[in-house]
Design a protein that fits this description.
The complex is a heterodimer of chains A (about 325) and B (about 350). By secondary structure, chain A is α+β, with helices and mostly antiparallel strands. Chain A has two domains: about 25-140, Sandwich (Immunoglobulin-like), CATH 2.60.40; about 195-315, no CATH class. Chain A has nine helices and nine strands. Chain A has helices at about 5-20, 150, 165-190, 200-205, 215-235, 240-250, 255-270, 285-295, 310-314; strands at about 25-30, 45-50, 55-60, 75-80, 90-100, 105-110, 115-120, 125-130, 130-135. In chain A, the strands form three sheets. In chain A, strands 1-2-5-4 form a four-stranded antiparallel sheet, with no helix packed on it. Chain B is of the alpha/beta class and about 350 residues long. Helices cover about 45% and strands about 15% of the residues of chain B. Chain B is built from 15 helices and eleven strands. Chain B has helices at about 10-25, 30-40, 55-65, 80-85, 125-135, 170-175, 190-195, 205, 220-230, 235-250, 265, 275-290, 295-310, 315-320, 320-335; strands at about 45-50, 70-75, 85-90, 95-100, 110-115, 140, 145, 150-160, 175-180, 265-270, 315. In chain B, the strands form four sheets. A five-stranded parallel sheet of chain B has the order 2-5-8-1-9. Chain B has a two-stranded antiparallel ribbon with strand order 3-4. The longest helix of chain B has 18 residues, at about 10-25. In chain B, about 45% of the residues are buried. The chains are: A alpha+beta (about 325), B alpha/beta (about 350).
Chain lengths: ~325, ~350
């Protein structure tokens, strides 16, 4: 080679390398379906995002046709959609395969590799879709919900682990919580027989007011008495219905006079009548409430008061 | 209108004497008589309900005689028109038509008791006139307005016969202070007396035993106002009254239950503000008659059913059986609402 021809050859090579490469079809993304939990008849969509520059089109016989497949999978459909949101020339090719093989036990199957071929004039581009492994399981009915594991996984034996320690801890905390709840119910007077003893609760609440001589404390004491009477009677008790109350609860009969006096004093206290000098402090109600509490404990049964005075008034 | 001070103690003696005389006329009706006395001293109108021949008219005539003043009575009929209460038309001796004042205005302001017998036989147009009459105690006729300052309306509703009747609208019912049920006594000795004691066979003679005008109807408005000013309530009683009111509107909230009744669907509307104001008014009179100047719950109980039950609007399902449900409902309200 002559020395003068070397620069010319270099220039030619430079020109060849600076010619832009022709754009071709490229695979941008494959979206595989899950690879487990398939049974006969299930479908597997495989979505391919391809960049297909202008001029490129699927070659004749370049795309698999629905109905093609092996003994395990069959192509149900191939759909082509726009994917310009991903890139300017992008198109979405979705191959929907269907599992046609029924297996007798959980088994891994392989979806064969596939090739998509595109052509532009004499140029050809091939997109290779790799093979894909997935696990399948036989169609089985569940013998029972209790035996689901052996239904779907015959012969499987779960490994037992020791749960006694956390169980003991949980039971311990539950015991503490139950004890606290019982204590709270006891304090609130809502426990079992306590709940059925309103006069005992009233006596305790009035005893807590001992020593106070203000009007508010006296009103609270009277209210406690009324609430206990109402709860025992199952209705609102007034002075006019006290005889019926006593008739329905004979255990309180010896306290009838004291109850009437207390009701009269309460009426004076709340409704602006001349006050009863015997009832100036909550302490004045304690003997009556203690007596009612004792008789209540001895078995004054709750019975509905026969409607008389109030209902007759109505 | 008088303006002299009212001696309530003396008036209470007179009221109790009035009550005693009425009880001598009407056997076995002390509660009915007490309610009528309350209505007289609360200056409220009364709707009477009861069977035929139980003594409603006798009661009214005796009340009218004790109050004094003029008394008028009109019978409710299906063809009665409002003008019939105001005008009396007839053909004179000379063959020419005459128009004279009707029963409402014939006595001018002296009318003290206006008795509307079988009010539910009259048409709604008549009820509408009555609405204004009861609310304002005025009526327009002959191009002028007549004021009836001492008039009290007593209306009677026959509860047995319901054919060709027009139920009073709730607005008209709400104007009545009380609805009083007049029942024949059920004690055996009283029934024997009514049957065989000839004293009870001549109602007019019986009524004549009531001292005429013993209450002086022209003073009753002042006395009523004085009672309302004198008898005081208390915060606890006020709370109780409001609870009773609310229980008529939302009974379920107060634990009111009736067997075979969906209590949430029972009441369409409870007592009206006017209704509970009238309840308090009647209760004050009851307290005064009992010799107190302070209200207590029993005063409200004494008039609660008569002052409230006729104001309740029940669901149509239950409205047709009002007599069956109204009293148990009111009794249950009193049983469940606590005081203090």
């Amino acid at each position: 080679m002559k020395r003068s021809s070397v620069p010319a050859l270099l220039s030619l090579l430079l020109c060849l390398f600076t010619v832009p490469a022709m754009a071709t079809v490229t695979l941008k993304q494959i979206e595989w379906p899950r690879n487990f939990g398939y049974r006969i008849g299930d479908t597997l969509p495989v979505a391919l995002t391809l960049s297909v520059p202008p001029g490129w089109a699927p070659d004749r016989d370049g795309l698999p046709e629905p109905g093609q497949g092996d003994r395990q999978f069959e192509l149900r459909s191939l759909t082509v959609g726009d994917a310009s949101g991903r890139c300017a020339d992008c198109r979405l090719y979705t191959l929907e395969w269907q599992l046609m093989k029924s297996v007798r036990a959980p088994q891994t199957l392989r979806l064969s590799a596939a090739v998509l071929r595109f052509r532009k004039d004499n140029a050809v581009a091939e997109i290779k879709v790799p093979a894909f492994d997935l696990s399948t399981a036989p169609l089985l009915h569940w013998a029972s919900k209790k035996d689901i594991v052996s239904s779907v996984h015959p012969g499987y034996r779960a490994t037992a682990f020791d749960s006694s320690a956390p169980l003991a801890r949980a039971l311990g905390w539950a015991g503490v919580a139950a004890a606290l709840l019982l204590a709270a119910l006891w304090v609130a007077g809502r426990l079992g027989a306590q709940r059925a003893r309103p006069f005992a609760r009233a006596w305790r609440s009035v005893r807590a007011l001992r020593g106070r001589d203000d009007a508010e404390a006296l009103e609270q004491a009277f209210r406690a008495l009324h609430h206990a009477c109402n709860e025992t009677a199952g209705q609102t008790l007034f002075a006019s219905t006290l005889p019926d109350f006593i008739a329905a609860h004979p255990a309180f009969a010896d306290q009838a006079a004291a109850l009437e006096a207390a009701f009269a004093a309460s009426r004076a206290c709340f409704y602006g009548l001349p006050p009863d000098p015997r009832y100036t402090q909550p302490d004045a109600l304690l003997p009556l409430l203690a007596a009612l509490r004792d008789r209540e404990r001895l078995g004054a049964r709750r019975r509905p008061v026969t409607p008389s005075a109030v209902v007759e008034a109505a | 209108m008088h303006s002299e001070p009212v001696d309530l103690s003396a008036w209470r003696v007179r009221a109790l004497d009035f009550e005693r005389q009425l009880n001598a006329v009407l056997v076995g009706m002390p509660r009915t008589v007490r309610l009528m006395t309350i209505a007289v001293f609360a200056r409220g109108h009364v709707l009477l309900e009861g069977d035929v021949g139980v003594g409603k008219t006798t009661l009214l005539k005796a009340v009218a005689r004790g109050i004094g003043g003029a008394y008028q009575r009109i019978e409710g009929t299906v063809d009665l028109m409002p003008g019939d209460l105001v005008y009396h038309t007839y053909v004179g001796d000379d063959g020419r038509p005459r128009v004279e004042p009707g029963p409402l205005i014939a006595q001018g302001s002296e009318l003290a008791v206006f008795f509307f017998n079988e009010i539910n036989r009259a048409r709604p147009q008549v009820h509408a006139l009555l609405l204004r009459l009861m609310a304002e105690r005025t009526v327009s006729a002959f191009n002028r307005e007549y004021t009836l300052p001492w008039m009290q309306v007593f209306a009677d509703r026959n509860r047995v016969e319901r054919e060709e009747t027009f139920e009073l609208p709730s607005a008209a019912r709400d104007r009545f202070l009380l609805e009083v049920s007049v029942e024949a006594p059920d004690a055996r000795d009283q029934l024997r007396g009514l049957m065989f004691d000839t004293r009870f066979h001549d109602a007019d003679a019986l009524i004549s035993s009531v001292e005429p005008g013993m209450l002086d109807h022209t003073r009753l408005n002042d006395v009523a106002q004085s009672i309302q000013d004198t008898v005081q309530s208390s915060p606890a009683l006020d709370d109780y009254g409001v609870d009773l009111w609310l229980a008529t509107r939302q009974p379920a909230l107060y634990g009111v239950q009736l067997s075979d009744v969906d209590i949430d669907q029972f009441i369409l509307s409870g007592a009206s503000p006017r209704g509970v104001a009238m309840l308090a008014r009647a209760a004050r009179v009851q307290a005064w008659l009992e010799g107190r100047d302070r209200l207590v719950p029993e005063d409200l109980h004494a008039v609660f059913f008569e002052a409230i039950a006729h104001r309740l609007c029940l669901n149509p399902v239950y409205e047709t059986q009002r007599p069956l449900y109204a009293r148990p409902f009111v009794a249950e309200v009193l049983r469940q609402v606590a005081s203090p």
